[in-house]
Amino acid sequence: MRDEVDTLVEAWARERQDLDLAPVEVFSRIGRLARHLDLARKVAFTAHGIESWEFDVLAALRRAGAPYELSPGRLLRETLVTSGTMTNRVDRLVARSLVERLPDPHDRRGVLVRLTPEGKTAVDGAFEALLEAESALMSDLSARQRTELAHLLRALLAPFSPPES
Fold this sequence. Notes:
Blueprint: H1 4-15, H2 22-47, H3 52-63, E1 69-70, H4 72-79, H5 83-95, E2 99-104, E3 107-115, H6 117-137, H7 143-157
Antiparallel strand pairs: 1-3, 2-3
Helix pairs in contact: 2-6, 3-6
């Protein structure tokens, strides 16, 4: 089975025989897959009335478990955005009734951000649609190949991952 990356690598190999093109074979394919995944995410999220950034915040709250609430600081760590960006995002999600702000019972100055029932419905539907789309992207791989690919990608990402706390 050949793909467009094979053609690209062959052309570079012909022109630059002095270079090791192994990274191009891997990362060009990852880049192309990323574009397909971005499109699948956009379709899945749009079908459920949310944007990608909204999904990130809502999903962090949903993964937290009942009562689906986190402090703004914890949301920052979960979504890897700045404080100002998170404030803006929470404001916009509150305006859409997808989350609500509540006083933190353990810190009189603090607040908690909680997923509303509407937010839970939106994130659950979007996540199910995303899983369906992602499964379709991997449909030509066996279960063993999927496991092996996940392991290899984990190894590639390890140097960029923060240590678990």
